[in-house]
Fold:
Amino acid sequence: MDGAYGALAALAPSGRALLRGLERADSVALDPHKWLFVPYEAGAVLVRDPELLRRAYGGAASYMREDKSGADAEGERVDLFEYGPQLSRGFRALKVWMSLKAYGRRAYAEEIERHIQLARAMDEKVRAHPRFELCSRAQLSISCFRWLPPGPRPDPEALDRLQEQLAQRLERSGEGFMSGTRLGGRWVLRTCILSFRTREADLDGLLESLDRLGREMVAGS
Structure:
């Protein structure tokens, strides 16, 4: 299962119900550099039967002799090169392990829940603003919407181009960054809240910037 962005939402009360059944997956891939907040890059895969990985990737070359000196109490030693395609690798797991040891499960669950609630708050702010149109309901930490210029509504293709141009203008301004995506065939602005530094005031500032930049854009400035 591809849980790169969302799998860790299972830690939070609001995400747990949405991801019910996740425990039945044979494997789950996830990115700790997202909702575990560790520096990029960090990837992980959880597998029900690690022996399947060993059968796929393990090798028996004579120069890679087995060394039991690092074995655990049961005489087991995990050599990661036997469980994936990469033989030489850096110690990427250290930052993940240290973060989990330092903060613990509860702190991550609370922060992920806060992000989910921020996305829902973003939905409400968009609904309340006369020049924004909500395009989907936030479930995890993603809110999708469009900016609508004053006056008559542009044709769909022109409105699509306007969203793309507005996202580019926002990035160039240095006031914020957001991606875009197609939803129901139409181009929309997409916020994905994944930083522990994000606060509700940042959402207000983002909408203010988008509205101002959009007005400047259609006015030709």
In short: The two ends are 47 Å apart (CA to CA).
